[in-house]
Amino acid sequence: MTVRLARPDDLPGFLALAAEVEHWFGPMVAEPGFHRAVRDSADRGLATVAEDGEGLLGGLLFGAGGEGPYHLHWLVVAGRARGTGVGRELVEDVLRRHVRGPATVEVVTFGPDHPGAVTSGARVFYERLGFTPAEAAGPGPEGGSRQVYRLTVG
Fold it and tell me: What percent of the chain has pLDDT over 70?
């Protein structure tokens, strides 16, 4: 597995990843705004991918902090690679690459009552990386509950 900054030609791989999770996150594959977000993040060096010889194993869109916290905007690991450390590698790479402490990193994930909370393993994943649950966030595009998770860095 190789983890690297995304390139513009990775868009089809991001769309394939998005297709696997639209039932949890709402429409993305056909949404011009998602295409723009991937391209803009890649152009700014804020999109990271993990790949093997068969294609993308995962992708992450990151938001540099500026005045506020940093943000993991979107993280998806291909079904064939879940549970193999791909997500951890993506997050650790982006933290090394972009975050200088002291800082806070936030991610919005499924609320505790969302069906994807257990199925996806997202909440446990973030907790294992040191993120802690915080306040509720607005509902996701499909109407399900969401919650902010925070990580304090150095």
Answer: 99
CA atoms of 116 and 113, how far apart (whole Å): 9
Q: Read off the tokens for 5.
A: 């900054």
Two structure tokens written together for 39: 């391209």
pLDDT, tens digit, 9 for 90 and up, residues 63-121 = 986 777 999 999 999 999 999 999 999 999 999 999 988 999 999 999 999 888 888 88
Verify cis geometry, omega within 30 degrees of 0, for the bond prior to 102: yes
Separation of alpha carbons 83 and 79, rounded Å: 9
Query: What is the helix, strand, coil percentage profile of the chain, to 5?
Result: 40, 30, 30
DSSP annotation string for 70-122: EEEEEEEE-GGGTTTTHHHHHHHHHHHHH--SSEEEEEEEE-TTSHHHHHS-H
